């Protein structure tokens, strides 16, 4: 959903408009947050917190700086970082390691993703799953577009190493 | 170019990004780079497939709306049903906004060199409205509401836009209408005519769009937003008063409901306060006995009673009543209408009308 400057001011004044934004973006934001915090329950809570905050404080969104989704993912990264500082879990590998319902292939990729450093994991997720452009990623991560390219490459190489290692049965964590 | 120099561009090529011609030519004829491109594509497809599974899981509907709607419902019901003191209710709403974000009593006294402006909207006759705004914290830079003064409904919203030395640029929205049921919310606020005025603490400024009320704006600097209740800073309940503020319901010493930020208040004979907690039903609190009600013991901010063999305690944010005993009518089977938000609610008004609320 794209907003002009005027509509952006009004978007959280109208529950139906906001509900449309929520329905479109909440599942995607939650899936993204789950990649960062490693827990589906925490991701759910954070998603609700973010939308509740946005409903009461809509002024932070500036359509000139990007889409609503990019804005949400940017907030999501910060909130997830706060969550990590607050809760200090043992390791993301301890949580939601393999959803029982995941087919084997999905479990393999889920494990591989979890073994990537957080920034590489989130960068890859936003590019592959959310289709964010290099320019949008540059805004979300606050880095130059050229750095997006090199870090995406590093992330893919990291995932590839784990992926190929997993195929051989020697999963290891990338640091 | 060598393969290791081109690999970063293979990743960019996979993303559909523009790459140097030399790198593109190398990737087109290099078997290793082609293999890499294929692997990126396979990994990408698998990640997207996994992502699709997670995204397909349903999310709860409109949970972000519940708190705000509950508050609006309270405002509407409370304002429509509460007769006196309406001005106290308006101030209570302001108090709740303060309590909502600052759950601590500030011990220091206000100084005159702070960033908070303690404003007062004073009519030619009758009590005025307090409005405390921060010039440095955008989360607390405005106030607004519906105040019923004399025979008039006053809708108002004041916001501090900018501070310049000792003066402040204020956005002032005002509308006066005959006394009657009314409501307050973002839509109402947006509909009000707006003017901007420079205000210097110490001056008395006549406000536009206030008709017969002839409101004057006065104010002084302070270093914090003070915590208040009603029109004074006392927490002592008035005669006949019953009030619920951010109530917690304990059932057999276990938390059964938390209605943070919700509040209702009455000080009129024959009126009561209603508390609805999902799963526990509704509780009507009254200073006088109501058919079917049980006596409840009041200890400052606690109301203790037994109903249907269960022990209940309602803990609130401030003293409930001057009386040591009130009456509680518990309807455990009560269910709100389908258009309700599903959250808890409080309201105040004549007992008969409260029992008809759906």
Brief overview:
With 175 residues, chain A is an all-alpha fold.
List the helices and strands and how they pair.
The complex is a heterodimer of chains A (175) and B (358).
Chain A: H1 5-10, H2 15-37, H3 40-56, H4 68-87, H5 104-114, H6 118-128, H7 134-141, H8 145-168
Chain B: H1 3-14, H2 21-29, H3 31-56, H4 63-81, H5 86-101, E1 116-122, E2 129-134, E3 142-149, E4 152-164, E5 167-178, H6 186-191, E6 194-199, E7 205-206, E8 216-222, E9 242-245, E10 248-251, E11 254-258, E12 263-266, E13 271-277, E14 281-286, E15 294-299, E16 302-307, E17 310-315, E18 325-331, E19 345-350, H7 351-356
Antiparallel strand pairs in B: 1-2, 1-8, 3-4, 4-5, 5-6, 7-8, 9-12, 10-11, 10-17, 13-14, 13-19, 14-18, 15-16, 15-18, 16-17
Q: Radius of gyration of chain B, rounded?
A: 29 Å
Largest sheet of chain A: none
Strand count, sense and closure of the main sheet of chain B? 9 strands, antiparallel
Structural class of chain A: mainly alpha
Shape call of chain A: globular
CATH hierarchy: architecture of the largest domain in chain A = Orthogonal Bundle
**Briefly, what CATH class of the largest domain in chain A?**
Mainly Alpha
Largest binding interface between chains: A-B, 45 and 37 residues
- Whole-number average pLDDT of chain A? 77
Mean pLDDT of chain B: 78
Counted beta strands of chain A: 0
Give the termini separation of chain A: 37 Å
* Radius of gyration computed on alpha carbons of chain A: 17 Å
Element-level helix/strand string of chain B? HHHHHEEEEEHEEEEEEEEEEEEEEH
Summed up, the domain count of chain B is 3
DSSP strand (E) fraction of chain A? under 5%
Portion in helices of chain A: 55-70%
């Amino acid at each position: 959903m794209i907003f002009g400057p005027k509509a952006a001011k009004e978007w959280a004044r109208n529950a139906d408009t906001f509900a449309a934004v929520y329905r479109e973006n909440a599942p995607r934001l939650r899936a993204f947050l789950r990649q960062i915090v490693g827990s589906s329950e925490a991701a759910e809570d954070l998603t609700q917190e973010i939308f509740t905050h946005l409903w009461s404080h809509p002024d932070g969104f500036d359509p000139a700086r990007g889409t609503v989704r990019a804005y949400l993912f940017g907030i999501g990264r910060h909130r997830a970082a706060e969550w990590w500082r607050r809760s200090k879990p043992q390791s993301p590998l301890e949580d939601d390691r393999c959803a029982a319902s995941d087919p084997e292939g999905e479990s393999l990729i889920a494990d591989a993703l979890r073994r990537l450093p957080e920034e590489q994991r989130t960068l890859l997720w936003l590019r592959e799953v959310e289709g964010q452009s290099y320019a949008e990623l540059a805004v979300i991560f606050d880095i130059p577009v050229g750095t997006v390219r090199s870090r995406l490459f590093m992330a893919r190489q990291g995932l590839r190493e784990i992926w190929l290692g997993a195929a051989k049965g020697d999963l290891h964590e990338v640091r | 170019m060598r393969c290791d120099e081109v690999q970063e561009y293979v990743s960019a090529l996979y993303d559909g990004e523009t790459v140097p011609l030399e790198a593109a030519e190398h990737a087109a004829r290099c078997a290793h780079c082609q293999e890499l491109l294929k692997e990126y594509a396979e990994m990408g497809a698998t990640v997207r497939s996994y992502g699709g599974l997670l995204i397909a899981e349903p999310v709860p509907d409109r949970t972000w709306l519940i708190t705000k709607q509950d508050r609006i419902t309270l405002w509407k019901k409370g304002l429509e049903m509460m007769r006196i003191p309406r001005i106290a209710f308006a101030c209570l709403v302001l108090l709740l906004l303060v309590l909502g974000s600052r759950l601590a009593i500030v011990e220091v006294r206000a100084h005159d060199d702070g960033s908070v402006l303690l404003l007062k909207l004073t009519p030619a006759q009758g009590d005025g409205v307090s409005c405390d705004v921060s010039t440095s914290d955008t989360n607390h830079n405005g106030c607004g509401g519906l105040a019923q003064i004399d025979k008039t409904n006053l809708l108002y919203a004041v916001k501090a836009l900018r501070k310049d030395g000792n003066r402040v640029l204020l956005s002032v929205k005002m509308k006066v209408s005959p006394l009657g049921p009314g409501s307050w919310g973002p839509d109402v606020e947006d509909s009000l005519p707006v003017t901007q005025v420079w205000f210097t603490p110490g001056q008395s400024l006549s406000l536009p769009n206030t008709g017969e009320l002839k409101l004057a704006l006065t104010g002084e600097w302070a270093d914090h937003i003070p915590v208040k209740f009603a029109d004074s800073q006392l927490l002592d309940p008035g005669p006949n008063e019953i009030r619920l503020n951010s109530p917690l319901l304990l059932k057999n010493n276990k938390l059964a409901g938390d209605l943070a930020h919700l509040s209702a208040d009455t000080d009129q004979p024959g009126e009561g306060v209603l508390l609805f907690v999902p799963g526990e039903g509704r509780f009507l609190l009254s200073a006088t006995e109501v058919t079917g009600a049980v006596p409840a013991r009041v200890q400052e901010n606690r109301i203790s009673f037994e109903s249907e063999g269960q022990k209940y305690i309602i803990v609130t944010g401030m003293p409930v009543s001057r009386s040591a005993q009130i009456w509680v009518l518990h309807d455990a089977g009560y269910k709100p209408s389908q258009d309700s938000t599903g959250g808890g609610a409080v309201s105040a008004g004549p007992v008969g009308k409260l029992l008809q609320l759906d």
